[in-house]
Amino acid sequence: MDVFSAFPNAIVSGQWELCEKVEDTEIGTTIQKRTPLDVIVDEGTSTTRSDIPEMESDMLIYVQPAQLPTTVSAKLTNGYLCHDKVNDFYYEIRDASIGKNQETGTVEHVELLLRQTEVVDGEF
Length: 124
Hints:
mainly beta; 9% helix; globular
């Protein structure tokens, strides 16, 4: 049983979206396409102090593979951001792990390790 079937009450809808990053030589990196996501948020986050006067905070979310444009980890980590629309926080995808059913080989979920980042006026 996949995590979404096992915990249907944990699914958050309408709050998260996947944002495609597009490299533009004139502007920099911008956000173009936005895709809605239904996710399960791992309530445990970790925060560490960095050498600069900021806090680095990581969060884990589970995403349904059918809602993603790809399940290739390298493409997810390099080409996309996640956006929490309710809090207006943007997150870099630091790691994308593919969760497969070990008996069937079917991809059942994708785990995205996120770190908060800044986006101003659609520019990253």
